[in-house]
Specification:
Blueprint (H helix, E strand, L loop, with lengths): L1 E5 L9 H12 L5 E6 L5 E4 L12 H9 L4 E4 L5 H8 L4 E5 L2 H10 L3 E5 L9 E6 L10 H10 L4 E12 L23 E8 L2 E2 L3 E4 L3 H10 L2 E8 L4 E8 L3
Parallel strand pairs: 1-6, 4-5, 4-7, 5-6, 7-8
Antiparallel strand pairs: 2-3, 2-9, 8-13, 9-10, 9-11, 12-13
Helix pairs in contact: 1-4
Length: 249
């Protein structure tokens, strides 16, 4: 097993998600949940056991994403490592990456052979054929400006002909009024830009920006950045899966 570090990792005192992952791996307590707060909805719970599911228990959009992975693959924001583990079992040369050392320690203990701790933006190692970002992993870009910057930066991490595979959602339905109109302030920031913060036991995280991007907006940004975009799946509530491949690679 190889494990390397790039850039900064999350302070363990503030790493609610990672702490939940490590605690479940140690205790196997099915009641463990990470509390999620946001600036637009009531608090929600993420059941930690969900993050440890096997491929047979994954939704279609995730198994289709695994099918789309080709060549060397970097699972960005790997969490508990379930997608990386599934790819490894398929024979894919996969590396799991997460900014949480709680998470990467757990991923390694679960048997993923190649693990990176740290910030994707600090990565400067070997390039990959596929960057995989599931469970709305593209959300880590935070804002539309962040998306534009990320799509340019990702070219440094991809081999010629490499691809980004990720899912996102258009959350406009959350703003729908009873009469079918949408209560959106057109003078405000893009409605898919959300702030979250998390809590697990004594671990309380800082607020962070997260992006849900509609397909038409993503397509515009992808084309501008020089990618060819392919829709791999569209599910309920405009939840979609795409592959972005660099043009003229």
């Amino acid at each position: 097993m190889s494990k390397t570090t790039y850039g900064n990792t999350i302070d363990k005192d503030k790493d609610a998600m990672g702490a939940g992952i490590a605690a479940f791996f140690a205790d196997n307590n099915d009641d463990y949940c990470v509390k999620v707060y946001s600036d637009f909805s009531e608090p929600d719970d993420i059941p930690v056991p969900l993050l440890f599911r096997e491929e047979k228990d994954m939704p279609l959009i995730e198994t289709l994403a695994l099918d789309a992975c080709k060549g060397t693959t970097l699972d960005v924001g790997a969490g508990a490592g379930s997608h990386a583990l599934a790819l490894q079992k398929r024979g894919v040369d996969v590396t799991a990456m997460d900014i949480s050392t709680f998470a990467t320690d757990t991923i390694a203990k679960r048997g993923v052979k190649k693990v990176i701790s740290g910030d994707i933006y600090a990565y400067d190692g070997p390039k990959f054929d596929t960057l995989l970002m599931l469970m709305n992993g593209i959300g880590l870009v935070g804002t539309l400006n962040g998306l534009a910057e990320f799509l340019v930066k990702a070219k440094d991490w991809l081999t010629p002909g490499g691809q980004l595979v990720f899912d996102s959602s258009d959350i406009i339905h959350l703003f729908e009024d009873e009469d079918g109109s949408y209560l959106i302030d057109l003078t405000a920031e893009y409605y898919g830009q959300i702030q979250y913060w998390m809590e697990f036991k004594e671990h309380k995280g800082d607020k962070f920006d997260w992006l849900y991007v509609s397909y038409p907006v993503l397509e515009e940004y992808a084309v501008t950045a020089g990618y060819e975009i392919e829709v791999l799946h569209v599910g309920e509530l405009n939840h979609y899966l795409v592959s972005l491949t660099l043009k003229n690679s």
